[in-house]
Design brief:
Layout: H1 2-28, H2 32-41, H3 47-69
């Protein structure tokens, strides 16, 4: 009988903990309007940041393509914007 009582008490404590955790999760989760506001503030939605990210990707891709096409170690360059501006390995 003592074991059954301990099991029931443990189940009740775990159930209460799960209930409290679920209630706190519901209270903390933002509503639909807050989600929409957060999405509008994300950098991906800003056209200027989107253009900047696209330009950065283009520069990176151009550098990688040039590194693949040449024997020069492009990692040694001091000025990454100019071709052939560093030591060769």
């Amino acid at each position: 009988m003592g074991t059954l009582r301990k099991v029931l008490i443990a189940g009740a404590v775990l159930g209460a903990g799960a209930g409290v955790g679920s209630a706190l999760f519901v209270l903390v989760t933002p509503g639909e309007q807050q989600k929409q506001a957060m999405l509008k503030e994300m950098p991906v939605q800003d056209p200027q940041r989107r253009d900047e990210a696209a330009r950065t990707k283009q520069l990176l891709l151009a550098t990688l393509q040039e590194a693949a096409a040449t024997q020069e170690n492009v990692a040694w360059r001091k000025n990454w914007m100019s071709p052939g501006g560093g030591r060769s390995a």
